[in-house]
Amino acid sequence: MRGPRARSAPDLDGLGWVFISTFEKQLDAKRRIVAPAEFRAAVAPLSGLFCFPSIEADCIEGGGEPLFQRYAALIDEFPFGDPTRTALETSIMGGMVQLGFDTAGRVTLPESLCDQFGLTDWVMVVGLGERFQIWSREAWRARIAEQRGLAREALLARARQRPAAPAAANE
Hints:
This protein has a domain at 22-136: Chemotaxis protein chec (3-Layer(aba) Sandwich). It has five helices and eight strands, in the order ββαββααββαββα. It has helices spanning 37-42, 65-76, 83-93, 111-117, 137-161, and strands at 22-26, 32-34, 49-53, 60-63, 97-99, 106-108, 122-127, 131-136. The chain is globular, with a radius of gyration of 19 Å.
């Protein structure tokens, strides 16, 4: 008899598996980290994870098959030979590395990416929905403060743009 299938991350309105939460992990001397169990379960039916230098920030970005397909579709929106297409192909596909899990659930991060982003000891693995990022602990502390400020400002600006809700009548 089999028990219910374990889920590590919610399926938000049919969007599929997502990477959520933030984990602090130690990088060992061979540049391995134990992948969060939630992340391993999110890609279990697939061939694993992949990563590349993030375009938007100074960190490693990664994900599973759905993220790969999203980037491939984005690249395909540009005609062959278009400079933007070439830049995306070079940055994403050219920098991409497949990550596999060992028997202990660890992944080995590429040396070049560790060097590029200063990943030497403790790293932060940050779930962002269908993707995740890996940051040095120090860089993440600065980034999260910046991102919270931007999120706060954006929500306040949005609230100011919305008309006030009518007051409920208590009579």
